[in-house]
Structure formats: structure tokens, C-alpha cells
Design a protein that fits this description.
The structure holds 2 protein chains of 2 kinds.
Chain A lengths: L4 E4 L3 H9 L4 E4 L5 H6 L7 E4 L8 E3 L5 E4 L4 H5 L2 H6 L1 H8 L4 H6 L2 H6 L5 H4 L41 H7 L3 E6 L2 E6 H4 L18 E7 L7 E7 L10 E10 L2 E10 L6 E2 L1 H7 L6 H11 L11 H19 L15
Parallel strand pairs in A: 1-3, 2-3
Antiparallel strand pairs in A: 4-5, 5-8, 6-7, 6-8, 9-10, 10-11, 11-12
Chain B lengths: L1 E3 L15 E7 L2 E7 L5 H8 L18 E4 L2 E4 L12 E3 L1 H4 L7 H8 L9 H14 L5 H7 L10 H16 L1
Parallel strand pairs in B: 1-3, 2-6
Antiparallel strand pairs in B: 2-3, 4-5, 4-6
Classes of the chains: A alpha+beta, B alpha/beta.
């Protein structure tokens, strides 16, 4: 790890000012990804701004019937919050499908959005990587790319965003609240992360110095019919090869409203609103789900080792939508974790 | 209050790194360290406080050998900077029990032969204590899932599971 200085920020505006006054400064929440990237010399901040004393760790109802997650609430506190369990069980499932209990106890909700890809080449300083060193090339294209993306990729980068939590946040129409040198603003979740294009070094649309302060969930939580299906190489503590957040509002067997987002397939949580529109008004049948799945993967592109993800994603979409419709049993391996002590 | 100097135990620093004070409560004792900001909590425990029960396995948050309890919650001490933990209460394997009086988990690990080489054991036990504090796991499937952050290369998982289940069962009754 390279040398750096550390200061604990006392307030949001002080943190923002501190960042603006130091070249090479970075905010640090739980540190679970940033400290690791610093050990690997992938991230080399010269100054760290600790956020632990800012508060921002509460989870509170909002006047419009939604729920505000403080930026510094831990993933564990969020997943096990009674309002999340009862009103946003899709989010509960997605969070508990990711990482380990230790990491979820440390990692913050804002940090979950800010984590970087786990593409092998991003971590391997001996190889070119446009995300790590712009302009050097992408080693994953034509290389070991089993974990890489199949949707929205570019010739510059085929990395994926690794989060489970963010797939549910995307499906649930979350709003990201940020503070920066130019004041406060909100960003729609689907606009927060970006596709790689020619600038894969930019993961998101935050302006320099901006700090996430909270995540606002709208009132509608799809708590009756939902599924977070995660497919991975081992049954726990592994990143998704493909994951699907599916949420339905049903009137009998007819779909009144739908949400569909995928993880493990793109540079951002892949929400497909055209597919959602295709579901509305249709019967909740395997036939409907297969047509929608084909549409979602219509423009998918495999890169050899990861080409299997295209068929896997189609089948995962059908299965997740079926699980969300039927709600028969534990809809994934983590559902039993919802029980309170 | 014990003050610890900036050099790791038994080692003379080549150059003096800029240090800053960090106050922690470790296993019930207030300690103030003067350390470089890049010192992880794991290295602070092992190199500056001689608490070598906590192990460095992968040093990347993947194996769980470095698990300790911070304010009662299990965390990977290798991924936390000590300066981020100012004012926190840290409990390590040394603080869970003593040779004269083992903690229930320590005794259960012996009774169930829940280790071979023993390197992952302090992390397994601290993680299991965190799991019990959380109170989310009662069945074997739940314990398996919520202990998945701790790897055992000897593969002693079945006996680790038995040991943890015994204490989980007792803590419920």
C-alpha cells in the first residue's frame, strides 16, 4: 500500500471541502473494496477522508411513504431492517445473496454502489486494462472472460458491475441523493452507473467531489411477488455469473406492473424497461416469460468463455419470473435468512 | 491506559512513517497506538499489540482468518484501517476466553475436534460468536450459509458445524 494521510470528516460539507482541497483524495466508508484495491496498488489515493462520524447511518420512513437508506448504513443493517424485510423483501434477498456476513457488517450502502469491477485484469497490474489505465487496451476481450459482460459492452471494456444489492435498487426505482461542491442533487438509479463506451474508467455519473448521502426507495416495494435469483459457481460467497431481480404486481394471473433487472451481465445493473412493458397486461405464464427473456438478450454478445451467459440469463429470467409469480417456497437459497431471532 | 510506541514489536523501522494516535478498547483494555494511517486493524493487533491469535490468511477479505468483533459485530480486520476504528470496542480470540476458562465456543471446538491445522480457528470462533450475537441462524443450513465467510483449507467444516450448532442450540435455550 502506498503512503497516504487520513482525516475523519465531521460533517458532509466539511468532507466535500476536504476532498476539493486535496488532489488524489478519496472518501472511505467501510473500506471493504477500497482498502483491498489499495493493497493491490489499483487505487492509490494520497489522502483518505473517513466518513464514519457523519451519521448518515439511519434508515427512516419518508413522508411520501418510501424509505430512506442512509449512505453509511451497513449492508447488514439494511438487509435486516424490519421495514426492508416487510416492504422491500427483494432488497433484503439481494443484499444477503452478496458477500459474507463479515463484509456486510462493514460495507456501507453507498459503498456498495461505488465498488469497482472484479474483472481479473482490472486487478492485474501486469496486463493492459482500459478501466485501470485508460488507453492501454482490454485484456478480457480475447482473454479469460468467463465472468465478463454480455450486454452493453464496448470495444474498450467488457467488465461487469459486481453488486447484488444494486440490481434490486435498480429494479425498485431508487433515487440516489448526493452532495457536492455545487450543492445537493438527486440521480435516478438507472442514470447513476454508466455503460463503458470509450470511457470505462468512469463507473458512474458522479461529478468530481460528490458524495452520496442517501438512497430513497419509493413507496412501491413489490413485497407480494418478487424474486432475487443468483447463479454462481458456488452456492455462497461468490459473485454472480447471472442474477435476476424480478418483481410483479398481479391481478389474478394478469401482470399489472413488472420490474426486471439483471446482475453479472453488464457494466451497470441491467434494468430493461422495454421488457417490463412487454410483461404488463400479459398472463403470467412461462410462454410470456420466455418471449420477454428472448427480448432482453436480443442484443447480447458473447466473448467466448462467457457466451454461456446468454442462454443462462434467458433461463434465469424465466425462472425468476416464475418464482415471483408463484411465491410457493423459499424463492432462493437465502430466503430463510429473513426470519428474525 | 497503555501507550504503544510506533515501531512494531521487535522491529526497528527503516524510516519513521508519519503516525497518528488511535484509541481503541481492546479486550476490555483502553489502548492508544501511534501508527501510520495505512496500518490495518489486523496489523495493529498482531504487530503493535502482540495479539497474534488473530491470523493473516489471504489479507484480502476472502478467507475470514482475520475475523474479530468490533462493537460486537464480526468484521474482517484485514480490510479495516486501524485509524477508522477510533473509539471502537475490539474483541479478539484472546478476549473470548482464557486458558483457565474457555468460552463455550472454544470448548465446543475442542469437544467436536473442529480443526486440523488450527490456522483458521480463531477466525472461525470469532465469526461464530458474531453469528450467535446476530441471532439469525438456528438450523444447520442457516449456520452453513452464515459461516460462509470463513474458509478452512483442511476441510474441517462438518465438525465446525457440529461445534457451532451445539453452542447455537445452548444459546437459544
Amino acid at each position: 500500500m502506498n503512503s497516504f494521510t487520513f482525516t475523519q470528516a465531521a460533517a458532509v460539507d466539511a468532507a466535500v471541502r476536504e476532498k476539493a482541497s486535496h488532489d488524489g483524495a478519496a472518501y472511505i466508508g467501510g473500506g471493504t473494496n477500497l482498502v483491498d484495491l489499495m493493497k493491490e496498488n489499483v487505487a492509490r489515493p494520497t489522502h483518505l477522508i473517513g466518513l464514519k462520524k457523519l451519521g448518515l447511518d439511519t434508515i427512516e420512513n419518508t413522508p411520501d411513504g418510501g424509505l430512506r437508506l442512509g449512505a453509511l448504513a451497513t449492508n447488514a443493517d439494511t438487509a435486516y431492517h424490519p421495514e426492508v424485510i416487510s416492504r422491500y423483501p427483494l432488497l433484503n434477498q439481494a443484499i444477503l445473496a452478496g458477500a459474507s456476513p463479515q463484509l456486510r457488517n462493514m460495507a456501507t450502502d453507498a459503498g456498495n454502489l461505488m465498488q469497482r469491477t472484479r474483472c481479473y485484469y482490472f486487478y492485474d497490474l501486469a496486463t493492459p486494462c482500459n478501466k485501470r489505465e485508460p488507453g492501454t487496451g482490454c485484456s478480457a476481450i480475447g482473454g479469460y472472460n468467463r465472468v465478463c459482460g454480455i450486454l452493453g459492452t464496448s470495444d474498450s471494456c467488457i467488465a461487469t458491475h459486481p453488486s447484488d444489492m444494486c440490481v434490486a435498487l435498480a429494479a425498485l426505482d431508487t433515487i440516489v441523493r448526493v452532495s457536492g461542491p455545487n450543492g445537493e442533487r438527486t440521480i435516478k438509479f438507472e442514470d447513476f452507473h454508466r455503460l463503458p463506451g470509450n470511457h470505462p474508467e468512469r463507473d458512474n455519473t458522479l461529478e468530481p467531489g460528490e458524495l452520496i448521502t442517501g438512497l430513497d426507495l419509493p413507496k412501491k416495494g413489490f413485497s407480494e411477488n418478487f424474486s432475487y435469483l443468483k447463479l454462481r459457481d458456488r452456492s455462497s460467497y461468490a459473485f454472480a455469473l447471472v442474477s435476476v431481480a424480478a418483481a410483479l404486481e398481479l391481478d389474478g394471473n394478469t401482470i399489472k406492473d413488472a420490474r426486471l433487472a439483471l446482475g453479472g451481465v453488464a457494466h451497470k445493473p441491467w434494468r430493461d424497461q422495454a421488457a417490463e412493458a412487454m410483461l404488463v397486461g400479459q398472463p403470467a405464464t412461462a410462454d410470456t416469460f420466455r418471449r420477454v427473456a428472448a427480448k432482453v438478450l436480443e442484443n447480447a454478445k458473447g466473448y467466448g468463455e462467457n457466451t454461456f451467459k446468454i442462454e443462462l440469463a434467458k433461463r434465469a429470467i424465466v425462472r425468476a419470473l416464475k418464482q415471483a409469480t408463484e411465491m410457493k417456497e423459499a424463492v432462493d437459497t437465502n430466503a430463510f435468512l429473513n426470519s428474525n431471532p | 491506559m497503555t501507550h504503544v510506541t510506533q515501531a512494531p514489536l521487535g522491529k526497528a523501522p527503516a524510516t519513521l512513517a508519519p503516525t497518528q494516535p488511535v484509541s481503541l478498547r481492546i479486550n476490555g483494555q483502553d489502548r492508544t497506538l501511534h501508527i501510520a494511517p495505512w496500518t490495518t486493524l489486523l496489523d495493529a493487533l498482531r504487530e503493535y499489540l502482540d495479539l497474534t491469535g488473530t491470523k493473516k490468511g489471504c489479507d484480502h477479505g476472502q478467507c475470514g482468518a482475520c475475523t474479530v468483533l468490533v462493537d460486537g459485530r464480526r468484521v474482517n480486520s484485514c480490510l479495516s484501517l486501524a485509524v477508522m476504528q477510533e473509539g471502537s470496542e475490539i474483541q479478539t480470540i484472546e478476549g473470548l476466553g482464557s486458558e483457565a476458562q474457555l468460552s463455550p465456543l472454544q470448548q465446543a471446538f475442542i469437544d467436536h475436534d473442529a480443526f486440523q491445522c488450527g490456522y483458521c480457528t480463531p477466525g472461525q470462533i470469532c465469526s461464530a460468536q458474531g453469528l450467535i450475537n446476530e441471532g439469525k441462524a438456528t438450523t444447520e443450513a442457516e449456520v452453513r450459509e452464515l459461516m460462509s465467510g470463513n474458509l478452512c483449507r483442511c476441510g474441517a467444516y462438518s465438525n465446525i458445524l457440529s461445534a457451532v450448532m451445539e453452542v447455537v442450540g445452548n444459546s437459544k435455550s
